[in-house]
């Protein structure tokens, strides 16, 4: 049985850099670094530098960014975060077109023997988590669906059940 990771976030910090001035120090709380790939000329250089410091590197892809823009960087990534809503506020509905990005990224990774996590964030709940996992997502961020529920444990359990009932099968 495939293991799925369900992340529950209270807030997210988006970081954007313009150079390799990013200098993590031992003891920093952050263990992952996200950046939208279209915002930077030296993305590959920055990713290599981040990983050389023992920090997991990830990029985020917004709904209107073609997933193919992430492909050149996959060899230096531990994870790709596909935003399934426009970033900015909670409670939005998942954008259905983002499912194609998840599937295309998973397919590309399999075809090119690349092993990364595919994280999704935005508009995710018990009713649609199975669509995400069956398309290849294995790290799920759930905010409003959990925190607006009367019973957190019940919603989390239902989401994990749905994820495990709907694995990626290609």
Description of the structure:
With 170 residues, the protein is an alpha/beta fold. The chain has a single domain (5-9, 31-165), classed as Aldolase class I (TIM Barrel, Alpha-Beta Barrel). Helices cover 28% and strands 15% of the residues. It is built from five helices and six strands. The chain has helices spanning 43-52, 98-111, 129-134, 144-147, 152-165, and strands at 5-8, 32-33, 56-61, 79-83, 117-121, 139-142. The protein has a six-stranded parallel β-sheet with strand order 1-6-5-4-3-2. Helix 3 (129-134) links the parallel strand 5 (117-121) and strand 6. The radius of gyration is 16 Å and the shape is globular. The model is unreliable at 1-22 and 24-35 (pLDDT under 50).
Write the layout of secondary structure elements.
Elements lengths: L4 E4 L23 E2 L9 H10 L3 E6 L17 E5 L14 H14 L5 E5 L7 H6 L4 E4 L1 H4 L4 H14 L5
Parallel strand pairs: 1-6, 2-3, 3-4, 4-5, 5-6
Low-confidence stretches: 1-22, 24-35
At CATH's second level, what is the architecture? Alpha-Beta Barrel
DSSP helical segment count: 5
Question: Which geometry do the CA atoms define?
Answer: globular
Question: In whole angstroms, how far apart are the ends?
Answer: 15 Å
Number of strands: 6
Total individual domains: 1
H/E order of the elements? EEHEEHEHEHH
Mean model confidence by pLDDT: 79
Structural class: alpha/beta
- What Rg do the Cα atoms give? 16 Å
Give me the CATH superfamily.
Aldolase class I
- What is the third-level CATH name, the topology? TIM Barrel
Strand order of the largest sheet: 1-6-5-4-3-2
Residues in β-strands, percent: 15-25%
The CATH C-level class name = Alpha Beta
Report the helical percentage.
25-40%
Main sheet record:
6 strands, parallel
